[in-house]
Specification:
70 residues, alpha+beta
């Protein structure tokens, strides 16, 4: 099976944000995220957005990562 293009975009952006395996996401740009599908849905709504900020946890500690879109 070929990965869906939106999943490749999400994986690429997750890497650019600095997300690591095991990170728990809570919000993307202030919107709640419960799972990978929510993450993809929030990212697909970033047209015209200049910055993406994710809030969550890494190893039980608060995590905030930001990425400026080119």
């Amino acid at each position: 099976l070929e990965p869906r293009p939106d999943h490749r975009v999400c994986a690429d952006l997750a890497a650019r944000l600095g997300l690591q395996s095991g990170d728990t996401l809570r919000m993307v740009n202030g919107m709640p995220v419960a799972n990978v599908q929510d993450f993809a849905r929030q990212l697909s709504g970033t047209v015209g957005v200049q910055n993406i900020t994710v809030v969550g946890e890494r190893q039980g500690k608060p995590l905030t990562l930001s990425y400026r879109l080119q």
